[in-house]
Amino acid sequence: MDARSPEVPCGNVLQNAAENLLQELEEHFQALTTTLNLRMEEMGNRIKDLQKNVDELMVQAGIENSIKEQKLGRKTLSLCHGSISFLRNFILEEQT
Predict the structure, then answer these.
(1) Structural domain tally of the chain?
(2) What does the pLDDT average to over 31-47?
(3) Same domain, 26 and 41
(4) How confident is residue 1, by pLDDT bands cut at 50, 70 and 90?
(5) What is the pTM of this model?
(6) Do residue 43 and residue 81 come from a single domain?
(7) Domain for residue 3, yes or no?
């Protein structure tokens, strides 16, 4: 008799059943993970297509150009404001 662990009736059967159950759970989990990854990729593609369609509709409606112009206008205004501030500071330094 082995001093490490006493013999348990049906011990090997229970251990095998537990190992099989864990193996099945791992396989199901892997399949679920694969399915979720595929669906997330598909959803990402759908979102990209939707964004493309929205952009096309905005162009057709003439909205796209005005949005770009507004963004460009803000950048230009910001650059002008920065340049004016720089020139003002430069002039003030020259006067002192």
Answers:
(1) 2
(2) 90
(3) yes
(4) very low
(5) 0.47
(6) no
(7) no
One-character DSSP codes across 14-75: HHHHHHHHHHHHHHHHHHHHHHHHHHHHHHHHHHHHHHHHHHHHHHHHTHHHHHHHHHHHHH
Could you tell me if residue 51 is inside a domain? yes
Both tokens of residue 6? 């006493």
87's tokens: 């020139």
CA dist 57 and 50 (Å) reads 11
Residues found in the chain: 96
How far apart CA 60 and CA 64 sit, in angstroms, is: 8
Mean pLDDT on 9-30: 90
Q: Which amino acid is at 78?
A: S
Q: Is the domain of 33 the same as that of 75? A: no
Under DSSP, the state recorded for 9 is T
